[in-house]
Amino acid sequence: MAVLVTGVTGLVGARLLPRLVEAGVDCRALVRGGKDVPAGVTVVEGDLFDCSTLGQAVEGVTDIIHLAAVFRTQDTDLIWKSNLEGTQILIGAVKDQAPQARFILASTSNVYVPDSAHPGREDDAVDPKHAYPASKVAAEKALRESGLNWAVLRFPFVYGDQDGHLEELPKHAIAGKWHTAKRISTIHHRDIATAVKLALDGVFDGRIVNISDEAPSSIYELAALVGETLESSAEPLENPWHLHVDASLARSLGFQPSVRTVYQAVQDKLM
């Protein structure tokens, strides 16, 4: 097994790659010059838009873990270019150089509509309006129609390993005027690795799969865990299932989170 990983210096990639190496996975990383990667990783300098090195990056690989994406920016053109066009270019390179490879795409639970009548399910119709989830839906479609062996993992709010992401949540909640009783699904970095390893084993082939832990938590509770007190409210909660996903498919396929709740992460000092 030889695995190409993109986005290895990002929030998820920087924490996933060392875990893959530790598990004995032969990893190759596509990185821009000057970026550090764990010992034992084969470095290919370049990016998704550097065709001269992209072919070298994918040649002979058995799997691709595509994490590279742009999220929090007002530059919607950059989001679409990176998340859709970059994925399309990578798909083309894989079809040319490693057509038998498995292509694992990291996506997002933000694709689900806010006013759903239930937690987001993989077979729900999706038509997000914001650039980031919309570009991810388009990238998923491009992959599903590529003819490659594929799997799409939709991740909810990611946290842990001192990534600082949970600490940023209160300000986003305030800016978005979220009701503090809103409960959101979460996943620890350790269990992103759990899911990716299952994907590398072919468990999720040909499927879109929600990956989350076992206990969605309220914005109020999550803020408290990082020392912030948000204004409480007894007003009715609109869109109670927004950002809450149904992960029963993943569990039926063998996924079991090792960090079952955010409170376990706190107790085990995994934050």
Summarize the SSE layout with pairings.
Layout: E1 2-6, H1 13-22, E2 26-31, E3 42-45, H2 51-58, E4 63-66, H3 76-97, E5 102-108, H4 131-144, E6 149-155, E7 157-159, H5 165-175, E8 183-184, E9 186-188, H6 189-200, E10 208-210, E11 217-218, H7 219-225, H8 248-252, H9 262-267
Parallel strand pairs: 1-2, 1-4, 2-3, 4-5, 5-6, 6-10, 7-9
Antiparallel strand pairs: 8-11
Helix pairs in contact: 1-6, 2-3, 3-4
Structural description of this entry:
- The protein is an alpha/beta fold and 271 residues long.
- The chain has a single domain (2-158, 188-212, 246-257), classed as Rossmann fold (3-Layer(aba) Sandwich).
- The protein has nine helices and eleven strands.
- The strands form three sheets. It has a seven-stranded parallel β-sheet with strand order 3-2-1-4-5-6-10, with helices on both faces. It has a two-stranded parallel ribbon with strand order 7-9. Strands 8-11 form a two-stranded antiparallel ribbon.
- Helix 1 packs across helix 6.
Number of helices: 9
Widest beta sheet: strand line-up: 3-2-1-4-5-6-10
What's the order of the H and E elements? EHEEHEHEHEEHEEHEEHHH
Number of strands: 11
**The CATH class:** Alpha Beta
Please compute the radius of gyration using only Cα atoms.
18 Å
Structural domain count:
1
Keywords:
single chain; 271 residues; two-stranded parallel ribbon; globular; 17% strand; Rossmann fold; alpha/beta
